[in-house]
Amino acid sequence: MSVLRHHRAGALALAVIGALALPSFAAPLGAQLAPAEQRIHDFVHQQHEAEITMLADAVNVNSGTMNFAGVRKVGALFAAALDSLGFDTRWVTLPDSVNRAGHLVAVHAGTPGGPRILLIGHLDTVFEGEGQGFVRDDTLAKGAGSSDMKGGDVIVVYALKALRHVGALRDATITVVFNGDEESPGLPLSVSRRALREAAQHSDVALAFEGGSQSLASASRRGASSWLLTVSARQSHSAGVFSAGVGYGAIYEAARILDGFRRELAGPKYLTFNPGVILGGATVDYDTARLSGTVAGKTNIVAPTAVVPGDLRFITEGQKDSTRARMREIVAEHLPGTSAEITFEDAYPAMPMTPGGEHLIAVYDSASQALGYGPVHAQDPSTRGAGDVSFVAPYIPGMDGLGALGRGAHTPREQVDLNSLIMQTERAAVMMYRLLDTTEQR
Length: 442
Description:
Elements: H1 2-6, H2 35-46, H3 48-59, H4 68-84, E1 88-92, E2 103-108, E3 116-122, E4 135-137, E5 140-142, H5 150-165, E6 173-179, H6 189-192, H7 194-200, E7 205-208, E8 216-217, E9 223-233, E10 236-237, H8 249-265, E11 272-275, E12 279-281, E13 283-287, E14 292-296, E15 301-302, E16 305-314, H9 317-332, E17 338-348, H10 355-370, E18 377-378, E19 398-399, E20 406-407, E21 415-417, H11 420-436
Parallel strand pairs: 3-6, 3-7, 7-19, 8-18
Antiparallel strand pairs: 1-2, 2-6, 4-5, 5-21, 9-16, 9-17, 10-15, 11-16, 12-16, 13-14, 20-21
Helix pairs in contact: 2-5, 2-11, 3-5, 5-11, 8-9, 10-11
């Protein structure tokens, strides 16, 4: 649970690297554009104001994760747009126990045997309500979800419109999954991410539209999971601490374990583990859902209880498994008079770089340079948090960061650079055009 609530807090600013100093997006056309790609470029420019209007309509629907009616309403807006493009759309309703609004899934069934592309977005926002509507100021606009990620969702729609404009959508097999709870995923993840996983198993590549950068895209992301350390000891008068009859107490044992993690496990590339909260004393009341609690004790009491929740991030499942094994061994080396247990909860799987991921970066880079926007490189996975694209990693190559450029995500000051919609829509559409390999239309 902890990693689901907090995996973005440390990665928030990192996720918009390259977007904080918003550049100018006027770009000369490259010489490598095919005729159809030139028409994609022209179409996207012609549709710019219509794209902004759709973004405004989406942002003006309050859709915080727990506003189920709002999430479904913005889902209906995008469903109507995808219906008009020939997609079969459906709303995936989740069990009441998951306590989330559900997801939009849309499928365009093309010619069998052709490339199958999965497009990933989300409908929910962190903030909503008064003061969070769409407000335009020349080439900038503010509002909840303007960049994270209703801007990305609109880019998906208009990239698909551009493909239809040049005839490339007719035979294409494309699935769109817009989750309704990305900002606070419902549990268990095996249920709330089932639709996304199933879509991945019927696709060849995935493109995700979280906030982007002019020069970076993510084909590798670290996995994220949580852990919970619980420590027990003999409660006694502090005068007897360290003695054979009393032992060291729960707080010393928790400190030993955490320092053992630091000394023995810190260092490997892309591996991090962080204790987020520590509670210890004579009585401990810890709320696992809210990651908060209360403690009571006295300086003359050897503490009998300690609780430490934390997160673990890793670049491969093997790195995760080996780290967990060593953490268990460290926990088991008890100080006298103490006992401890550590448990782990999976959340986001690892998304290591693969040849398929490298190929996606290369295709995106070639599209960007042909359009005159310059080269695109793979983003260091340590500079971006976990995201929905990670759930497809066990099945197919994926790439993220195709969405709008902005700043202030996850704050009431969120804004989007409206000119970035042109660049990102062009690059996404040309990339998909090349992935679909519609050579007869070039």
